[in-house]
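BUG: 3D viewer hangs when loading the predicted structure for this chain

Environment: internal workstation, default settings.
Expected: structure renders.
Actual: progress bar stalls at 90%.

Input used:
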Amino acid sequence: TALIDEAAIGFTLGVFVFVKLEKQVDDALNTFESAVMEFPEVVDCWLMTGLRDYLLRIVTTGLPHYESFLTSELTKIPGVASIESSLSLRRVKSAPATPFESQHYRSS
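Structure tokens produced before the viewer hung:
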């Protein structure tokens, strides 16, 4: 595992994006997941429970780059019903590893 300072290499904007699909069926899930695998801007992608289907973490060089990615790539994926973006202001905590040393996780 390597820890990279994204801002130091020009990726100054972090965006969390919730995506809702028109239908949550195998074909739609596979289509969406295959598409996001091709986008280097998407650094994390989670299939979620609840009102939205996916949560993405996207890094870009700024708002113009994000707008271009959003309008020319993300919204063009077949089956996407809605997209909701939230800009990251500041990372408060980043844990690079699973907390194996925590008392809470030790077995008795």
